[in-house]
């Protein structure tokens, strides 16, 4: 069995490479800014991954543990498209476009996989969340991982970042890598478009109606079946985009999803179910605290501390940061 | 007449006796290698009983994807003792490599066998108690609890890999020699381990059965079917859940210790995410989820299949595991025992309808 965590460590290593290049002990303004930037950067990665989950898990309350494998799909799509460009596009200025092309492709393909999954499996398990968790995690997740392993091989593969994202923005003595800024920007764009869709379009309004009161929405002529499928497709699609972005951070492998899925769920659990704002707060909260803990101690102890912090946080807010008060008992 | 014989044959008591008989004669029929495998599967079966207590018909809804960790904590406790006995009290080689000269504080209690065995049950129980208390107290349950239990796996495995100088890192602990002076690889010792495992399996099984057949089990079923109702009746579901979770972790620790004795190695990949999921599959497949006998069958069946696959087609095991998972969850929510019960029921109904028909024709 391939160690699930070695990849994680690599990715996390990429996340924190800036951090450890800094000198310890001497805490100046620069260090604080850098740590904060790293925290925000990690937060934006978590947000990007958790956005899809905030929709399927947060809004629909459907557990899809194969979410991590959609990240993987997005990452491998970027890899494949890069190779197509390598073979068919001469190394001109257009070559770098592969990355721009792969984002919408990842969105569409991941959404397609999501819909397929919803129709064949998850739809039948809406009322059985734990079973849905098992079927998607132990079943679909493992199958997709093994499929990736058969196609691309077990070792990690690298995607060469496009040249316009190499280097960084220099501010004084600080360097902010373009790839990190790009991910931050991508997360913000995704967030805004999701917000726009849910709160400013007729279709998004229908989705919210179904989430809030399924029977009533159905009575008013909303096709809940269609809405479920569409919401699932959107959630899955954005997850594919997240996978695409992860290729900027390091090598990708069949278990890349496994290493991120729990973090993503943590974001949603901490943020509170059913609100996008919760996911944003959860992502940046976990990102910043994680970076600070890892700065003060090391990567291993930092992980333990963040877990303890989450448990402690849930003592204070058992249903997450943003919660809807209701007097109903289940 | 024939039917009643059938029913008697298929009743639980007969199944128990049958399984017991098979386990009894197994050492005579199987080679040392196979017997060792069976012993390993039975250690898994012990864990599966614990998991079934938690997730099964009792307190249904508490699904732990973190039992690999409790299993692992037990296993590491035993392994640390075995390692120290193998080195004769000197510090293990991997510690020397990372430049340590004295036995670290955490390892000191594990010089003493009895203490090590006790800690192998106590440590998992304590960890489970804290996680269980802090989550059930806030009525965090269902999927949320499952995800937290999974996060625990990641945290502990990262910790074990990260603290190379204390745990041996990714390669884990191995190269054991003796236990109480007996060579652990000798076939007579391994046979003894097999008997110990069978005995503990029986003990755990009957203890759990006693627990759930009594009043305690009834409360657990009440909590499963209507947690709030039980709360209004004056029971404290959180306490019950915490207790059963702690108990199940202790059982997992016990299983882990038996595992190490028979397999001779423990490493983080054996206790991580994938093994933790597999454990749930044993219970789901053997099923009945709450029959307590189902998980034993499930654990042995899945692991036999796994060994069979790994011997001939290792690369297809994951596919098989995945497909099995989906099929069991979607089509066999009550596992093999459920299927069996359904079949039994149908036959019984058929008899009833037959007798009704007979009565009608007579009148």
TrEMBL record, chain A:
The chain crosses the membrane at residues 32-59, 66-85, 97-121, 133-155, 175-198, 232-252, 264-288, 295-316. The lineage of its organism: Bacteria, Bacillati, Bacillota, Bacilli, Bacillales. It is a multi-pass membrane protein. Belongs to the binding-protein-dependent transport system permease family. LivHM subfamily. It holds the Pfam family BPD_transp_2. GO terms for cellular component: plasma membrane. This is Urea ABC transporter. CDD domains: TM_PBP1_LivH_like. It comes from Gracilibacillus boraciitolerans JCM 21714. Keywords: Amino-acid transport, Cell membrane, Membrane, Transmembrane, Transmembrane helix, Transport. It is found in: Cell membrane. GO terms for molecular function: transmembrane transporter activity. GO terms for biological process: amino acid transport.
Automatic annotation (TrEMBL), chain B:
It is a multi-pass membrane protein. This is Urea ABC transporter. The keyword Cytoplasm does not apply. PANTHER family: HIGH-AFFINITY BRANCHED-CHAIN AMINO ACID TRANSPORT SYSTEM PERMEASE, SLR1201 PROTEIN. Keywords: Cell membrane, Membrane, Transmembrane, Transmembrane helix. GO terms for molecular function: branched-chain amino acid transmembrane transporter activity. It is found in: Cell membrane. Pfam families: BPD_transp_2. InterPro entries: ABC_transp_permease, ABC_transptr_urea_perm_UrtC, LivM-like. It comes from the Bacteria. The chain crosses the membrane at residues 14-30, 37-58, 64-82, 116-136, 143-162, 192-212, 239-259, 316-340. Its main location: membrane. It comes from Gracilibacillus boraciitolerans JCM 21714. The keyword Transit peptide does not apply. One of its GO terms (cellular component) is plasma membrane.
């Amino acid at each position: 069995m391939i160690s699930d965590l070695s990849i994680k460590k690599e990715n996390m290593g990429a996340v924190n490479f800036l951090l450890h290049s800094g000198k310890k002990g001497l805490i100046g303004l620069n260090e604080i800014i850098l740590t904060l930037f790293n925290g925000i950067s990690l937060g934006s990665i978590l947000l990007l991954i958790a956005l899809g989950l905030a929709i399927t898990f947060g809004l629909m309350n459907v557990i899809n543990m194969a979410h991590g494998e959609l990240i993987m799909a997005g990452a491998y799509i970027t890899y494949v498209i890069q190779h197509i460009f390598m073979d068919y596009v001469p190394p001109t200025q257009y070559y770098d476009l592969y990355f721009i092309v792969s984002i919408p492709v990842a969105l569409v393909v991941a959404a397609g996989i999501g819909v397929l999954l919803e129709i064949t499996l998850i739809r039948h398990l809406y009322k059985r969340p734990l079973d849905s968790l098992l079927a998607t995690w132990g079943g679909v997740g493992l199958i997709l991982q093994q499929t990736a392993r058969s196609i691309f091989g077990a070792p990690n593969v690298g995607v060469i970042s496009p040249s316009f994202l190499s280097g960084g923005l220099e501010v004084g003595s600080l360097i902010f890598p373009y790839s990190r800024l790009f991910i931050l920007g991508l997360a913000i764009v995704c967030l805004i478009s999701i917000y726009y869709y849910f709160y400013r379009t007729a279709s998004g309004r229908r989705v919210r109606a179904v989430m809030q009161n399924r029977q009533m929405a159905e009575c008013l002529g909303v096709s809940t079946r269609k809405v479920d499928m569409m919401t699932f497709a959107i959630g899955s699609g954005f997850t594919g985009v997240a996978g695409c972005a992860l290729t900027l951070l390091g090598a990708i492998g069949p278990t890349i999803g496994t290493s991120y899925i729990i973090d993503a769920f943590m974001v949603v659990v901490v943020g509170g179910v059913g609100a996008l704002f919760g996911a944003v707060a959860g992502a940046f909260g976990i990102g910043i605290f994680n970076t600070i803990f890892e700065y003060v101690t090391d990567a291993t102890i930092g992980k333990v501390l963040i877990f303890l912090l989450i448990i402690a946080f849930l003592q204070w807010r058992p249903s997450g940061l943003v919660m809807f008060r209701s007097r109903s008992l289940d | 007449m024939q039917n009643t014989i059938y029913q008697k044959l298929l009743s639980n008591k007969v199944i128990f006796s049958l399984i017991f008989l098979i386990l009894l004669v197994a050492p005579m029929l199987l080679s040392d290698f196979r017997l060792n495998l069976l012993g390993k599967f039975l250690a898994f079966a012990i864990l599966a009983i614990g998991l079934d207590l938690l997730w099964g018909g009792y307190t249904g809804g508490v699904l732990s994807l973190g039992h690999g960790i409790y299993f692992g904590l037990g296993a590491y406790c035993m392994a640390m003792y075995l390692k120290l006995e193998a080195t004769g009290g000197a510090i293990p080689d991997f510690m020397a490599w990372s430049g340590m000269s004295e036995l670290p504080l955490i390892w000191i209690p594990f010089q003493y066998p009895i203490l090590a065995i006790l800690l192998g049950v106590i440590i998992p129980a304590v960890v489970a108690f804290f996680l269980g208390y802090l989550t059930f107290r806030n009525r965090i349950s269902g999927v949320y609890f499952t995800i937290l239990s999974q996060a625990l796996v990641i945290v502990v495995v990262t910790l074990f890999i990260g603290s190379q100088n204390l745990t041996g890192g990714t390669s884990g602990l191995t190269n054991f020699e003796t236990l109480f002076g007996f060579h652990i690889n000798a076939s007579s010792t391994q046979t003894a381990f097999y008997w110990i495992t069978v005995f503990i399996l029986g003990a755990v099984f009957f203890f759990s059965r006693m627990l759930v057949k009594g009043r305690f089990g009834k409360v657990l079923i009440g909590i499963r079917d209507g947690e709030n109702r039980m709360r209004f009746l004056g029971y404290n579901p959180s306490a019950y859940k915490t207790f059963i979770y702690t108990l199940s972790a202790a059982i997992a620790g016990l299983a882990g210790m038996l595992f190490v004795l028979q397999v001779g190695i423990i490493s983080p990949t054996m206790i991580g995410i994938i093994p933790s999921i597999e454990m749930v599959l044993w219970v789901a497949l053997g099923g009945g989820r709450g029959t307590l006998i189902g998980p034993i069958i499930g654990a042995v069946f899945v692991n036999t299949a796994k060994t069979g696959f790994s011997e001939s087609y290792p690369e297809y095991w994951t596919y098989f595991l995945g497909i099995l998972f989906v099929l069991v969850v979607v089509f066999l929510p009550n596992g093999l025992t459920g299927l069996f019960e359904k079949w039994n029921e149908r036959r019984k109904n058929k008899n009833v309808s037959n007798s009704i028909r007979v009565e009608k024709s007579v009148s």
